[in-house]
Specification:
The chain is α/β, with parallel strands linked by helices. The chain has 12 helices and 9 strands. The protein has a single domain, classed as 3-Layer(aba) Sandwich (Rossmann fold), CATH 3.40.50.300. α7 links the parallel β6 and β7.
Length: 285
């Protein structure tokens, strides 16, 4: 596939290209396997960041399940597939979610973003550049597991949030993901977020276990993003197709999401032209 540098007339409007050179953050949220609450985490972080005054766009990049819209109580009429086919522009598919979040919905089984033809890529890039003019964060909810398309997403993102539960099999899958990322880019920052933890001690034990293995075998330091506690409010919110941050803002899980979002705001540096850098890296990988 042709990279962005060789795509002719990438941005027809030079003023749009100049204005899109701003500072933002691009974070990929992933997991070593399914069933650990990754999409719940993506939704919770997006809402918490938005509640803190940040302008957030979420890209549902899980093209096998594509269910982030369900979690946020949204019903897309059109998806990213319609943009790639040329039936819609990206502004026509974006959904307005809780607290001003904007969601770019995907649909199951569409072509990988890293394998687009030049004209399709151009159409997508130009649309995202327009979206990027008014955005602080791009959160990417990837598919679970170690697949080429997932790894390419992680390589293109600025930093990675790796979601795991405290159970040993989940931590083993998390280590496999760290190993795969490290093989491609040893400098890629990785944050471990322990989901469904019983208490702080269990979360710290999980981090210590993963950290010990990654340091011993890879010489890799994993950053701690903390924990989201086991909380029945999360399941209640899912059943009502609402985020726990929205429906139960004073619940333990919602408070934990707030703490995690503040840590991200404090620790993840702003990146110049973050959206464009993400798509450039993705197309060239």
């Amino acid at each position: 596939m042709t990279g962005l540098k060789s795509a002719p007339n990438l941005v027809a409007n030079q003023q749009l290209e100049d204005e899109s050179l701003f500072h933002s953050r691009v974070i990929a949220i992933t997991s070593g396997k399914g069933g650990v609450g990754k999409t719940n985490v993506a939704g919770g972080l997006a809402m918490s960041l938005a509640k803190a005054g940040q302008k957030v766009v979420v890209l549902d990049a899980d093209f096998r399940l594509a269910n982030l819209d369900v979690l946020l109580g949204l019903s897309p009429k059109h998806t990213l597939e319609h943009v790639l086919r040329g039936d819609r522009v990206i502004e026509e598919i974006i959904l307005d979610g809780p607290f001003g979040i904007r969601l770019i919905p995907a649909s199951s089984g569409i072509q990988e973003l890293s394998k687009l033809e030049t004209q399709t890529e151009l159409r997508l890039i130009q649309g995202l550049q327009r979206v990027a003019l008014d955005t602080d964060w791009l959160l990417i909810d990837t598919a679970a597991g170690i697949h080429d398309s997932v790894i390419k997403m992680l390589m293109a993102a600025q930093e990675v949030v790796l979601v795991s539960t405290p159970e040993p099999p989940s931590l083993l899958d998390a280590y496999a993901m760290v190993k795969a990322i490290h093989r491609m880019d040893p400098t890629k920052p990785i944050w471990l977020l322990v989901n469904n933890a019983q208490n702080q001690e269990e979360a710290e034990e999980s981090l210590d276990a993963l950290q010990g293995v990654t340091q011993h075998y890879l010489g890799k330091e994993i950053n701690s993003l903390g924990l989201i506690p086991s909380d029945n409010h999360v399941l209640q919110a899912v059943r009502q197709q609402l985020g726990v941050v929205d429906l139960f803002p004073d619940s333990p899980a919602a408070k934990a999401f707030r703490a995690v979002s503040l840590r991200l705001m404090e620790k993840v540096p702003l990146k110049r032209d973050g959206f464009n850098a993400f798509w450039k890296e993705l197309s060239q990988s």
